[in-house]
């Protein structure tokens, strides 16, 4: 388990690569066997090539689901990560298709959904996981374009995809949004990111209320610090020392591995959570937050 003592100062080129993480992240533990909770289900996972999205994809496959994952269009390092996931899944005897897409645009999200439906004939689980963040210490220097881009990736894509997928969901199907503890703690150097994470939580609650009568559940996960490429590719680009002992300030004294997030997504995607909707699961190493 990664702890606060063996993550050293480092940086990566944005958007980052799992293959370049030092130390390597764990995406699924060797003793995770699965119990067929998602057999017959098809899951569309944005940002499923790396980090938390990759962990969700691997755990879903272990539970019998077929997975469609997205990665950033025209980004070679993300393509390599996505192909790793596809290879892993196929070695497990599962099915995975990968889709390069720019989720910031409605038309691309609509085309993605149509292509996934063509390839799999259905979608049962939508995981809005793709996200980005940028460090900024002074609102006066936060460029309008950067603010808009953070919203386009984190919020608009969630809206576009949920809207496109909803007509194809049925009773028992689910939407899961990846938010963040920062939607509650709101650190001053991540003002645009934190704002989008708060928006995701409210979107989760409102959409849940709107479609509850259809038997479709909508929930969110709000992770604390998790060891993913986004950290050295954003925090590390600003100052590699920000990655030193990443997550050491959490009450547990360490960041999480992506493998610790995957089972949460399985729980929310499966009938085990059949009486849970509009809620946010706080997987944050003991941080106390409201909501």
Automatic annotation (TrEMBL):
Per its UniProt record, what Pfam families does this chain match? adh_short_C2
| Residues in coiled coil | none
Which UniProt keywords are listed?
Answer: Oxidoreductase
List, alphabetically, the SUPFAM superfamilies matched.
NAD(P)-binding Rossmann-fold domains
UniProt record similarity statement: Belongs to the short-chain dehydrogenases/reductases (SDR) family.
In Swiss-Prot or TrEMBL terms, this protein is called SDR family oxidoreductase
Organism, as annotated: Acinetobacter pollinis
